[in-house]
Amino acid sequence: MEKGRIFLIFVLTIACATSNLEAGWEDIVFTENGVIQECDQYVQVFVYGTLPYTTTVEMTGGKVGALFIYDYSTVNISGGIISSQFYSFHPGNNDGDDIFLCPPQFCVNVSDHSTVSISGGSIDSLQCEDWGTLNITGGDVSLVFSDHATVNISGGRVRFGRVKLLYLWPEENYSHLYLSGGQILGGVLLEDNATMEIYGYGFAYDPNGGDPDNPKFSNGGRLTGFWRDGTAFSINFQDFRNHSYDNVILHEIHKVDIAVIRIEQAIAKKKEALGRVDAALEKEWDAHDALEELLEGGDYGDLKKGDIVKAKQKIHSAIQHEKQSKEALEKSIEKLEDALASLGWELPVEE
């Protein structure tokens, strides 16, 4: 069954890779729940909802030129590519006339109180505005924000860009950003009332820091520190009409919380080690049983019976040591769990 599934995935991969990239491109409008998946190819995707009903679209793969989300709709992106380069495949750009359909300024446009959650995939450029909400836990995203956007970033690779200068009469920016993880690239421009709240520890701000290769986009200094899981980060800021870093709120994780994090990480590593010990024990028992069968069969080949018995005894001894190591690891995990309980931390209930 597993081989059949792998073969099917292989066939689908080859089919997508060898298909004509210029074939099958079209626009699509979602007014009810739908899916964009591997091998799907759309130049423009429009997502609409009609209150009190909303529309949810799951994008797990495929290629899209531009995505427009309206009317309290939801789009969850876990895979695929969204890039303006795909506009060249639009039928209107390949009909022989001199009229060319240009791509929008941003490949993904989140507006009208809509929500986009990104856990994977690649997005060339995204604008979140007009009370839109953006959640980023993974993937590769280039991002701008304006109006009353809410942006939550806890993972992924996120590149910030400028947006306000692209409008002749910019409105006040009241966007709110919450950062607790991820790799932050580019320069963050916090104009007007836009606010960024950062959750971590070990913060250090250097007003003269920045990216020496892109000084124009990091003229507002650099903040370094660590996310909750201990991963180091650095964030460059841009200044234009105001000092961006003035709009930053830092939330320092308490020392107790850091200790809890480290204990949780240690427990996770020990549980991984238990899994490896179990895997080793399984192989050792297989070897032990194979020698047992060899002894029962009596066909020793070039070996002597005493050598086989000795090897079997050595394997059994190794198994006993492994069992002791497993018991020690389990005891160690119990002690760390007791430490968490002493710190007032409730352990999750295992189902």
Describe the SSE topology.
Blueprint (H helix, E strand, L loop, with lengths): L1 H17 L7 E5 L3 E3 L4 E7 L8 E4 L3 E7 L4 E4 L3 E2 L25 E3 L4 E4 L3 E7 L4 E4 L3 E6 L4 E11 L15 E14 L5 E12 L15 E5 L5 E7 L9 E5 L2 H43 L7 H38 L9
Parallel strand pairs: 1-3, 2-4, 3-5, 4-6, 5-7, 5-8, 6-9, 7-10, 8-10, 9-11, 10-12, 11-13, 12-13, 13-14, 14-15, 14-17, 15-18
Antiparallel strand pairs: 15-16, 16-17
Helix pairs in contact: 2-3
Characterize the structure shown.
The protein is of the alpha/beta class and 351 residues long. It folds into two domains: 16-253, no CATH class; 258-342. The protein is 28% helix and 31% strand. The protein contains three helices and 18 strands. The chain has helices at 2-18, 255-297, 305-342; strands at 26-30, 34-36, 41-47, 56-59, 63-69, 74-77, 81-82, 108-110, 115-118, 122-128, 133-136, 140-145, 150-160, 176-189, 195-206, 222-226, 232-238, 248-252. It has an 18-stranded mixed β-sheet that branches. Helix 2 packs antiparallel against helix 3. The longest helix has 43 residues, at 255-297. The radius of gyration is 28 Å and the shape is extended. The chain starts with a helix and ends in a 9-residue tail after the last helix. Mean pLDDT is 87; it is low at 1-15 and 163-170.
